[in-house]
Automatic annotation (TrEMBL):
Classification of source organism: Bacteria, Pseudomonadati, Bacteroidota, Cytophagia, Cytophagales
Organism: Hymenobacter daecheongensis DSM 21074
Domain of life: Bacteria
Name of the protein in question: DinB superfamily protein
Pfam families from the UniProt entry: DinB_2
InterPro entries in the record: DinB-like, DinB/YfiT-like
Annotated Gene3D superfamilies: dinb family like domain (1.20.120.450)
Domain DinB-like: 32-166
Length: 176
């Protein structure tokens, strides 16, 4: 069964960039299952030194970008859990740059970050796979904007696809 795409108004337009990266006709849960192998193929073989590459001054390193994916996935899954369970409390936003600056990602082995990524991804897939159609349609408020659980299901793989695109376009060419 294909999960229907979220409709405009079920999420803030900022998320269009992410939701559009889930190809029409693609099941987002399947995309969540496929992405870990794709990410490992891109960065799993990097040396610790290579994983500290930033494509420009002031930009995140590959390790920081990976931990940003992990942090964002956790936050989006937490939002989905709260909204799916009927919690109508407005959920706060987060400052991704402040998170990256305090992450300590560059001091951790890449293998440790990849293990954490795999663990979080498995939990995310299990959580989203547990939601009923009614729960997927529930709406709440995050970062002062309406959002549905369905939209969050599309945002998670779309957000990763966005960063993998940047990784391929801006980081990896500098390594070859």
């Amino acid at each position: 069964m294909l999960t229907s795409r979220p409709q405009p108004g079920q999420y803030v337009p900022y998320f269009d960039n992410y939701i559009s990266r889930v190809p029409v006709g693609t099941e987002p849960l399947a995309m969540l299952a496929e992405q870990p192998e794709q990410l490992r193929q891109l960065i799993g073989g990097l040396s610790e030194e290579q994983a500290l590459l930033a494509y420009a001054p002031g930009k995140w390193t590959i390790k920081e970008m990976l931990l940003h994916l992990i942090d964002t996935e956790r936050i989006m899954a937490y939002r989905a859990l709260r909204i799916a369970r009927g919690d109508q409390q407005p959920l706060p936003g987060f400052d991704e740059n402040a998170y990256a600056a305090e992450s300590g990602a560059n001091e951790r082995p890449l293998s440790d970050l990849l293990h954490e990524y795999d663990t979080v991804r498995q939990a995310t897939r299990t959580l989203f796979g547990s939601f009923s159609p009614a729960q997927l349609n529930r709406a709440g408020t995050a970062s002062n904007h309406p959002i549905t659980v369905r939209a969050l299901l599309f945002v998670v793989p779309g957000h990763e696809a966005h960063h993998v695109h940047i990784l391929r376009e801006r980081y990896l060419p500098l390594l070859h």
